[in-house]
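FIELD: query
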Amino acid sequence: MNEDIRIHSWPCSYYLDTSKQWVSGRLSLTPVAIKFAADKTGELLVNFHLSSISEIKKESSNLIFSSLTILEKNTKHWFSSLQPNRNVVFNILEHFWREQLLSSQGAGAEAAALQSTKGKELTGLLTGSQKRLEDTAKVLHYQGEQFDNIMRGLNKIEGDMDVADRLLTELESPSWWPFSSKLWKVPLETKPKETATVSDSKNQEGIIIRIPVIITHRTDSNVKPGKLTLFASGLEISDCNSQVIHRFESKDVDDIRVHTPYEISVRQRFIGKPDTSYRLLSAKMPEAIPILEMQFSKKIQFLEDALGFVGARKSPQVDLGTSIWQAATGLLGGVVQPSSPVESREGTDNEEVQLQKQEKISQEEAKELKQILKKLKGLALETEAELERQDEALDSITTSVDRTTLNIDKQNRRIKKLT
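FIELD: result
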């Protein structure tokens, strides 16, 4: 992730202690730092890491009103005249500051990151790929359940069509036909079981991912903290108390725009009334975007600032997880590929030796990488098998729908003859 990406910027004034005066400029937030540049000179007066912040407060005094203070180590920075307002800036800065402290890239891990080995880098990349595959498996599992429910529904429809066919045959038969009364004695299937199956599947739907977000509704200038929850069937926006603000089913979402790697907007269009639109900002959004792209591949749009997030890809429709997997594969290839041919008889033990020799990866890291790769292979095979099963189910559904349509047309013609 590019640490120079500008997540947000706000016009404001900064109190320059050396000259004892206020300087107008722009306060900017990046994934890891806070900066302030003066308007007149363009000079960067403030530039410090989020992990070095001790406190962010809203303060005021007799001389300074509606100000925001940031305590960085032993230095207190004052910002005033914040636009659109102080609360918006405070909520966003506090969100990214807290998430930075909670993440592995916080203050405690910053020094360790400088000494990160190739093994740790590979482990991180492959762990990310494993998470993407697990999320994909969850979505596919839910889709598989929906296909199963559709098949059960179609089988029920076909059963009802058979009953209707027998009833029509009874109506069409002459009154003197001796076996006509038997046609009415057909046991009808009860519906509660099917209904319960569908509802149980809905209630058991699992959460794919839940992240903290800063929520803006439509074009309101005020923002408030909340949560974004992604399900296989849609997404849900709730407040800090887990009270649902709005739930979008997959069919309700008309478009999702990715403004930056950290900010998206979700919209549902209406005719004759305002659209339902939410803008969501989060430090954890890069984890949710690949899942959103997988679920809403035809509805998601990457704007210019967000395309840099996915690298030099040709189309925004390519899975974000692919770029992570390719990066991991490239690094792994550079580690595993020896300078001279290696005999295949060494097997998996030789891979561990090569990992350790080529990039000085420890034995523990080599074993961990081997375990992750084994899990990735298993997940990939399971995903491939589920996709094949769903392809077969889709073919069966198509055949069943065609057959049911023909039966309906046939019975409509018979009903017309009777009337």
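FIELD: remark
The chain has a mean pLDDT of 74.
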